[in-house]
Amino acid sequence: MSFRLVVRPLAELDLLEAYEWYEAHQARLGSDFISAIDGLFARIAGNPRLYPEVYRHVRRAVVRRFPYLVYFVVEDETVSIVGCFHSKRRPELSIGRLDT
User: Is the model's pLDDT at 47 over the cut of 60?
Assistant: First the structure.
């Protein structure tokens, strides 16, 4: 069974900012980033409980090849992506979003 995956608006902004940063630094690198995200989203939708809970009910997955972490919650048969943060970002900047 595959879960329905929803990307919340702030998470979409996170992804767009990362895409634009990578694309500005090297042609096609932004597209490679999005491909890595798409693959991770497919794995999350396939089995979201495979990923550890790291804060209350929030789970975390690591993006392959890129230093980004995807945070999500599982609610019934839906996975909601709440954020996509650089792994070097200070955790306290992300906590407020994860409380939602």
Answer: yes
The pTM assigned to this predicted structure is 0.90
- The alpha carbon dihedral of 99, 77, 43, 13 has a sign of negative
Cα-based angle 56, 70, 45 (whole degrees, multiple of 5): 90
Q: Which residues have a Cβ under 8 Å from the Cβ of 23 and sit 6 or more positions away?
A: 29, 30, 31
Classify domain 4-98 by CATH number.
3.30.2310.20
CA-only gyration radius of the chain, Å: 13
The answer to whether the CB of 14 falls within 8 A of the CB of 84 is: yes
What span, in angstroms and rounded, lies between the C-alpha atoms of 77 and 91? 28
In angstroms, rounded to a whole number, what is the distance separating the alpha carbons of residues 32 and 46? Answer: 21
Domain ranges of the chain: 4-98
Q: Which structure tokens are listed for 79?
A: 């996975």
